[in-house]
Sequence to fold (195 residues):
Amino acid sequence: MNRRRFWLTGGLAVLLCVLGLGVGVHSQQRETPKQLVVLNVPAPQIISSAADWLNTGGKPVPFARGQVYVVHFWTFGCGNCKRNLPAYAQWQKDYANSPLTIIGIHSPETAAERDPAKVASETNRLGITYPVAIDGGSANWKRWQQQWWPTVYLVDKWGNVRFYWMCELEWNGAGGTKIMQGLIDTLLREPGPAA
Fold:
């Protein structure tokens, strides 16, 4: 599937998610939940300056081969986004000794959410300690062709987006936390590029 078709399929899946309809995306073994999209396309690098990163000492976090990434798009005013935060915090704890990095990309929905000082304050207040890229101009939102808060991506050791989950992980009992954790385990077990 080419990148354009992937993003168009994702857009259709979002619409169907909002409408509460199944999207019919299948993995090789079983039907996936409507919020989960299975694919294999190169992950866009995160565009930012050093000043746009929180919890990194001002250092950007580029994707590195051999590392698995959880990349989630959020904004501090989004209740659904906040309800996903405990899952990311738990993964950060559970995988502290694994090649897994969690990255939040804060893409604002409102003018108040564009203020970097407010983003930093809310990130701190919410107890987020993993890297957060401030996407005030929505460059990453556009680059990843985002349409929905929250969206959670899993990037494999080769730098490919393999799965993403649209909507809140546990919306209507969807079980997204457990599903995504199983997929994280799968990606961590896969062989990566030689060091």
User: Anything to note?
Assistant: Helices lie at 3-19, 79-94, 116-125, 139-143, 176-189.
